[in-house]
Amino acid sequence: MTVKDLAVETAGWRPLDPRMALVNLRWLLPPLGIIALTAVASGGVNWEDHKLQIVSALLFVYLTAAEIVRWRTTRYRVGDEQIEIRSGLFWRRHVAIPRDRLRTVDLTSGPVHRVFGLAIVTMGTGQALRTDRRDQVKLDAVAVAEAERLREELLPRSRPAAPPQEAAASTVTPAEEIARLDPAWVRYAPLSPLVFVIGLAPLSQAYNLAERLGIPVDLGGAVLGAVAFLRSVPRWLLVVLAALVLVAGVVGTVLLFAEAWWRFRLERDQRTGTLRVGRGLLTTRSFTLEERRLRGAELIEPVMLRWGGGARLKAVASGLRQTLDGPRGGSGALLPPAPLRVAHATAASVLRERESPLLPARLRPHPRAALRRRLLRAALASGAAVAAAATLAALAGGSAGWAAAVTGLLAVPVSVLLAVDAYRSLGHALAGAYLVIRSGVLRRRTVALQRKGVIGWTVTRSPLQRRSGLATIAATTAAGTLGAYTMRDVGYGEGLAVADEAVPGLLAQFIESAEE
Amino acid sequence: MAQKAGGLRLRPPRNAVHPRAVRMWTVRAAVGYGLVALALAGLAAFVEGAGTLFAVLAFLTALAGACYAVVVPRWRYAVHRWEVTEDAVYTSSGWLWQQHRVAPMSRIQTVDTARGPFYQLFKLSAVTVTTASAMGPLRIDGLDEEFARELVDRLNRVTQATPGDAT
């Protein structure tokens, strides 16, 4: 460490919490558990059999040493203008985030972190930092109280986005609750493809365990044996087995839901102009978003959830790193899977609108040519499926004709239904201050994007789209992973008119009338 | 409204890139494919037993390269157009999948130029206009070097005069 480094340490630089090194204890659990299990199972420990576990214990020692070094070398400081983090022993890193670029401060605590009273603070900027090509910086880990204090210290400077008259009219309570968990929503948890998968997980777990315990398993033989077994047992037993897998799936999805959304609460802090989501059973998450970064909201309806009348809701915000929203919900999730009505009501209050701009009533359908495109794709897909089935059957010595007929009877109606549903999902509208776009079948997404959040347009037309007068028009924005929300197969002229109206004065200069 | 809207279309951006860009793209493609063809020809001469195979591959590469070098640069020149107005940057590219992109001046974050070796040889430049969107920057590829520098200066002056962080 140089003299200069020592000098700055005194001026407001703070260390991480030393207990962070203890979090590594979790790496010690699986090897110890396995050794204990075999000791119980076989009545003794033969160290020769535990080379793998000994290696992982050594790995634990190494990781702990590395963590102690990281604790010794990492310092952070919150200044008036920026937040700085120094870290690294040989490879010194110095990251500085301008405070006005800070968009989100998230606190996460895994089970082990919670045992030691620690939290990981993740600061998101949405922009690549100058010294580091990532868009977020982590403090892993500080004491929970320090994490809360940091969040309080970092975010209150923002200007409240509240319209002043509204704020003045009501007696301002610091934290206004927008939504909280209704335990009845757990009924939406099984409405996910996971429900079919989770029930099978014990099989793969059993295989892993058997392998670790050194019980030889011939996987190919096991699969063949399982198939033979399933063929030999009576039909009713198959039904019972399938039901058991499904029951296990339901239990699993419900547990995942509880882990992710226990004590869920969405609230607005009037004082600081922030939205805050707190949730989680074993791993608690707290996510804070400045309202002035909010650019809209997105309604996500995976197909099973949609059939069940439910939906998810996500924030669309600049600088918000959007992650894939699995069962645990990605960052930016504003609601667990919840009734559609609740999702709309929450969207309205989050966006400070009287009515949810995501309501489908206003959406305009896309031209019939968009339906023809989808039907054509459905025909091509089922044709390919039929051809593949016939070829496989012929190769396996079966009847190609039968295989083709069965596949066709199945694939044609399904793909046509999907095509029609995909077309019916398409829609766009200008609803007040928002551009609303909807598309998708298996995962229908409706986005309401603030018109002032649109930072450009990209118009793409394939040869087929040109022939049928369609276009794909993307509104580019600083929010979202893809950087754009897209109107697919919209009428060319109508799409341009909507884009022009959404952001007045931008596109008009490049538009001409085709009839001239 | 519907009838009027149905008749709207985007007009092409006003300017083509510099004609020298066609020559540069041609040379670049010829050199690239030529090197691969030469390497394959070398293999044909030195690898025992597979000589004919590599000779055929070398010939096919040279043929594909010749077609590419003749067709694609002219094609690209014809469809790649650009325009900078007082308040927006507008580009077009792509022949089959035609893409038009618009970025308002007030939302531009940075404007850069990039010049690879072939660009330097032909005194050309590629201008990159970045906004806060993750969709990627707008590119004007193949402007005269001097001209591009002036354009970038002008764009930077305008964008720096705009307050806020352009999100």
In words, what does this structure look like?
The complex is a heterodimer of chains A (516) and B (167). Chain A is 41% helix and 26% strand. Chain A has helices at 3-10, 25-42, 51-73, 111-115, 144-154, 164-169, 194-197, 201-212, 219-232, 235-261, 303-307, 340-350, 368-395, 400-425, 463-467, 492-502, and strands spanning 14-15, 75-78, 82-87, 93-98, 104-109, 118-124, 136-143, 175-180, 265-269, 274-279, 284-290, 294-302, 310-317, 333-339, 427-431, 434-439, 443-450, 454-461, 470-477, 484-491, 511-513. Among the domains of chain A are: 3-109 and 118-154, no CATH class; 194-259, no CATH class; 368-424; 425-510, PH-domain like (Roll), CATH 2.30.29. Chain A is α+β, with helices and mostly antiparallel strands. Chain A is built from 16 helices and 21 strands. In chain B, helix 2 packs antiparallel against helix 3 (51-79). Chain B folds into 2 domains: 17-78; 81-161, Roll (PH-domain like). The radius of gyration of chain B is 21 Å and the shape is elongated. In chain B, strand 4 (88-93) and strand 5 form a beta hairpin. Chain B has a 4-stranded antiparallel β-sheet. A 3-stranded antiparallel β-sheet of chain B has the order 6-7-8. Strand 21 of chain A pairs antiparallel with strand 1 (8-10) of chain B.
Present the secondary structure layout:
The complex is a heterodimer of chains A (516) and B (167).
Chain A: H1 3-10, E1 14-15, H2 25-42, H3 51-73, E2 75-78, E3 82-87, E4 93-98, E5 104-109, H4 111-115, E6 118-124, E7 136-143, H5 144-154, H6 164-169, E8 175-180, H7 194-197, H8 201-212, H9 219-232, H10 235-261, E9 265-269, E10 274-279, E11 284-290, E12 294-302, H11 303-307, E13 310-317, E14 333-339, H12 340-350, H13 368-395, H14 400-425, E15 427-431, E16 434-439, E17 443-450, E18 454-461, H15 463-467, E19 470-477, E20 484-491, H16 492-502, E21 511-513
Antiparallel strand pairs in A: 1-2, 2-3, 3-4, 5-6, 5-11, 6-7, 8-9, 9-10, 10-11, 12-13, 12-17, 13-14, 15-16, 16-17, 18-19, 19-20
Helix pairs in contact in A: 2-3, 13-14
Chain B: H1 2-6, E1 8-10, E2 15-16, H2 20-46, H3 51-79, E3 81-84, E4 88-93, E5 98-104, E6 108-114, H4 117-121, E7 124-131, E8 138-144, H5 145-161
Antiparallel strand pairs in B: 2-3, 3-4, 4-5, 6-7, 7-8
